[in-house]
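Justification of resources, computational component.

The compute hours requested in this renewal are based largely on the per-chain cost of generating structure records like the one below. Each record pairs the submitted sequence with a full structure-token output. That output is archived, and it is also reused by downstream analysis tasks.
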Amino acid sequence: MSINPFVLSPAIPDEFFCDRQSESASLIKSIINQENVVLISPRRVGKTGLIYHCFSQPEIRDNYLTISIDILHTTSFQEFIKELGAAVFNTVAKRSEKLMKLFVMTLRSLSGSFGIDSMTYMPTFDVKLGQINTPEYTLEEIFNYLEKADKPCIVAIDEFQQVTKYPEGNIEALLRGRIQKLVNTHFIFAGSERRLMNEMFFSDKRPFFQSATLLQLDPIDLEIYTAFAVDQFKTAEKKIEAEAVVWAYQMFDGVTMYVHKLLHDCYADTQAGETCDTAAMQYAAEQLIQQNAKRLQELLAYVTEQQKEVLYAIAADRCVSRITSSEFVKRHHLKSASAVQSATKRLLDLDLITEQHKSYSISDPLLRIWIVR
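The structure output for this chain reads:
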């Protein structure tokens, strides 16, 4: 059976993994050298895929225990502990009966909260949020357990900036205090809200200041991406025009998730001996926009009219360097520079726009395209 080489899940087989050679080498080197890493990239560019790719390499897979959690959906420290505990249980404790018993014995704060599998009579992690009464103590127990593991542990926490939004006010300091004592466990702190991640790790007023090696992830180079796409089509006796790949890349700012989705769909729609051209790519893009229209509309449900005006103005210009200038305010018929400044702050907090090198753009290129349309 023909396998679509443009894999949409983060777990991508090596033969279908596009480039990232230098980034993979840097991340693997940092892991082997017992460094914590802060991995910063725009959303949907492939940081989770890079982590999975590195975890699957023999030098990591054979010598380390790897744990991955995504905390974007969490809203409290309790939820964070639940996600971490479940991941450690499923990834580490299930490896052997000995590690399972050690897990249950070590997490005394949750004793009595584990379920029992009716077939194997082994504990299952079905802990409820309300059962985590002392999250700080449970965190200490989880870290103690990882320190006792039979291999070094690597914990990847995706969308790590989410901890700054928890109602508990001391989570950064709490995590930093516990993590710096660990010897057998190291971390990859991955995040897509660059402003928040930079503040967390590079402001001398924050607990995580200079505590991790920085790895920046940018979109894959256009030439490399084009060559990869052409080769994958060629292997299946199909063709794709280079101009079609370039169009998709430029339209979606090189964001891997969207470009890969278009290539995935076009690959499926192109039969052996046929050629995918720019018109076919544009059709796939229209389908993608229509499929996501309702979701994008709902994103703006809680944005005020004034904030929408600024958002639409940024979308129209694609990239704005002087966002409070009189020229920008007048050209887009905005209320005032102070109103723009206030709206911009809120849009940054909502991660609807991003700021880099004092220039502002829409965080999600699909949202930008939908607004302009």
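The CA atoms of residues 204 and 210 lie 8 Å apart. The chain has a mean pLDDT of 94.
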